[in-house]
Design a protein that fits this description.
By secondary structure, the chain is mostly helical. The chain has one domain. It is built from twelve helices and two strands, in the order H-H-E-E-H-H-H-H-H-H-H-H-H-H. It has a two-stranded antiparallel sheet. Strand 1 and strand 2 form a beta hairpin. Helix 6 packs antiparallel against helix 10. The protein is globular, with a radius of gyration of 19 Å. The mean pLDDT is 87.
Length: 269
Amino acid sequence: MSPISLDPAAVLRVARLDLTLLWRNRTALFTAAGLPVLFAAMLVPVRGEKIDGVDGALLQGTGHLGFFLVFAVFMNLVNILTARREDRTLKRLRGTALSDAEITAGSVLTATALYAVQAVALLVLLGAAMGGRVPADPVLVLAGLAGGAAVFATLAFAVSGITPNAELAQLTVLPIMFGCMLGAGVMFPLDGLPGWVQEACRWVPLSPVVEIVRTGYFGQDFVHRPGHPSVGIAEGWLCCVRPFFLLAFWAAFGRLLAARWFRWEPRRA
């Protein structure tokens, strides 16, 4: 790897290239932008239904704020990086004046910007059509989502390295996608599960994001206590110390795996 060097103009050029390639790949575009629309539509049937003490649409909607990271950041980047590696685009970019950091940062910027649009749209939907509210602590919500973006970006670089080709990219992401969907409390609360299962689910990389986002959105403790009592801003941050620690762990672990597995050139048969 070359020394870390970032020229904002160069990063934007790579991001623009990524956006163009995403627009041309209809399958990847639907995965990154179409699937979140389908998941947002799933909120309508549970609107007004109390789940875990709050409106079901808002509970699932705040879970989707985290889960959209899987589509827009993780799956999108795995597809882009694998396809670019196999058609030797990464190798050619690396032969230019661009640094490794600029090449990777441009791709991450595109995926993160796409996710930011989805997150803002979902927050507007929750507030305007689902009886929601402005987040009780928007800074805490933003910090949780930013940490989640960092985690899933590093995991994407790692998974792309073990993905043989672009056609199989849709399959290699499935274990993480389903693990996050079922184990992070996105669709249903985890409080009713046995204690050891709850503890195991907390280690799913999406779980800390969902806990932080719900705590910041509702102004209630969604980390430690059943019933989710109300918390102030300072107390909300204290409640989220463990989730932030888990995000730091996953970011470091993902970075370690990416350094070990990520490839710049096509895999040899």
